[in-house]
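Entry 14. Ran structure prediction on the chain below.
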Amino acid sequence: MRRLLVIGDGKMGRLVAGLAADHGFEVVAQLGAPDTASGITRAQVREAEVAIEFTVPTSAARLVRQCADLGLPVVSGTTGWDAERAIVETYVLGQGGAMLWAPNFALGVHLFAKVVEEAARRFAHAGAGFDAHLIETHHAAKLDAPSGTARLLATAAERARGRSVPVTSVRTGHVPGTHELVLDAAHEQVRLVHEVRDRRVFASGALAAARWLVGRRGIFTLDDFLGEVPR
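Output, structure tokens:
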């Protein structure tokens, strides 16, 4: 059993802790906001080999840096702190640490991004006048808009089309996450949709990534963990 520190006790943190044993982890501690307000301590980390962090955008950068200070590899699933992430990644590298960040740990989303990029490329070059638009829907409590996944998908589509792709964000009810690429022409429309039915897919992906991260140093993404999908 690998030893895991869970940082965050919200919905995702509780799911990670609850599924940890199924992925070969012993949870040595789970830290909520009051536990980390003054910083993560060596005593709190105990004998953890890796950490998984699902907290809030205003705390993620600080918590990842503290993991690096303690020599603890960290998988981060918090979104909405893009402006700080490059600085934090440089800090982690300077400490000889390891970090894997992803806006979404569902394997299907990783593959969907490849599909979105290829579809955007083909429709842009088809000469049929297709516009592209992304629509993302999440639960009412989601803090960032657009979501990190929507930004990932928009970047993929923009890279293929060579121009910007607008994003519409919807916050309502309890939707775990739905992302849709709409390709619209005068007389026809194509929709590509990825829909999450259960948040456990995020927790399982983060736990699998955490097992992979143990013993590594550097800054990683899901492309490193899963390998590039061949064209």
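The radius of gyration is 19 Å. Will compare against last week's run tomorrow.
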